[in-house]
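Re: that backbone. Tokens:
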């Protein structure tokens, strides 16, 4: 994840969302092992900060006190004394990243602590869960230009999704998209992984049985007999129409891209919608590939065998890469024997 954020050219990662949205869970998954200052709530008792070498109370429950949010009374002394020292210890710790879980309302009247937090942001890259509340210090953090903000209440932008399913299957010997893989057609794996993330989707194909499967799975379809890859791109975009945040192109014969990878791709598109985003393994670029909405005219103007990859090569400074963990996520099915190794991956990974 750190490598993906470096590609974003953003210094910090801030995760926000309503209570129970999963901010802490996501931080723990992404940044295990980094120096951290965590907020721990003990029901009926209070709230503690747990940081490098110290645990200190910063809030206590006072359920009988009217007008107190959640019945919680802040204890400024905890922030001003041990909290400042904990942030300074995080700033001095080895490593690039520091995790703050979470920044909330209790510290709003603790200027020394907030100043120490600002100092930490200048010295380290900070991954933080930010409580969603209308307070000056909480509003200021997501507004920083050096932060990538993920709102778990609205994590994904309105993207158009074009599934490129128009190959003739000449090397495969038949319509590979309907070939059985893991007990279902190969294309079904692609559609299952993406349709909940990308509701504005269309499958562009020359195969009637492929179109029938796509419609059965709730996807829009374009059935055509045009010869070129550029035709598939144009027909898909015309079916979706202009005006969306951006457009994602997925090969119909690439069934092993994981839902988590697609989520990261969607999050990157939401955080930096004016970049071209594509997957890569090592130095090898792959698909799916995302284009900002402003590329709609250029994409519809492609000709002949050109696809989105050709347009990305013409605009290399606009392209950012998202590394996948496993090479098999980028595999496609050109020959029947490719299905055998895909079956082995499915069996090992439990997908």
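Recovered sequence:
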């Amino acid at each position: 994840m750190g490598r993906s954020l470096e590609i974003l050219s953003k210094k910090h990662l801030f995760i926000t969302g309503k209570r129970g949205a999963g901010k802490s869970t996501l931080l723990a998954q992404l940044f295990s092992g980094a120096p951290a200052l965590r907020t721990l709530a003990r029901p009926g008792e209070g709230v503690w900060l747990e940081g490098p070498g110290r645990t200190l109370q910063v809030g206590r429950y006072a359920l009988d006190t009217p007008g107190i949010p959640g019945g919680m009374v802040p204890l400024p002394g905890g922030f001003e004394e041990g909290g400042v020292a904990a942030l300074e210890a995080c700033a001095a710790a080895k490593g690039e990243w520091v995790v703050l879980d979470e920044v909330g309302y209790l510290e709003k009247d603790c200027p020394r602590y907030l100043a120490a937090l600002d100092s930490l942001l200048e010295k380290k890259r900070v991954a933080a869960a930010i409580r969603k509340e209308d307070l000056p210090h909480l509003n200021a953090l997501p507004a920083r230009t050096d932060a990538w903000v993920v709102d778990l209440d609205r994590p994904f932008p309105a993207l158009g999704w074009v599934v490129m399913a128009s190959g003739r299957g000449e090397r495969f010997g038949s319509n590979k998209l309907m070939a059985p893989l893991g007990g279902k057609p190969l294309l079904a794996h692609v559609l299952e992984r993406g349709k909940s993330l990308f509701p504005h989707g269309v499958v562009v194909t020359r195969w009637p049985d492929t179109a029938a499967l796509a419609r059965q799975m709730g996807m829009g379809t374009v059935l055509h007999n045009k010869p070129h890859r550029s035709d598939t791109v144009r027909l898909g975009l015309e079916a979706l129409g202009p005006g969306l945040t951006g457009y994602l192109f997925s090969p119909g014969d690439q069934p092993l891209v994981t839902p988590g990878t697609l989520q990261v791709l969607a999050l990157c598109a939401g955080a930096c919608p004016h970049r071209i985003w594509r997957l890569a393994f090592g130095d090898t670029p792959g698909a799916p590939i995302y284009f900002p909405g402003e590329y709609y005219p250029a994409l519809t103007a492609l000709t002949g065998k050109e696809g989105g990859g050709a347009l990305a090569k013409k605009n290399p400074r606009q392209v950012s890469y998202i590394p996948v963990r496993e090479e098999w996520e980028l595999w496609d099915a050109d020959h029947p024997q490719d299905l055998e190794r895909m079956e082995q991956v499915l069996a090992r990974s439990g997908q």
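The first strand starts at residue 12 and ends at 17. The chain has two domains: 2-151, 159-349.
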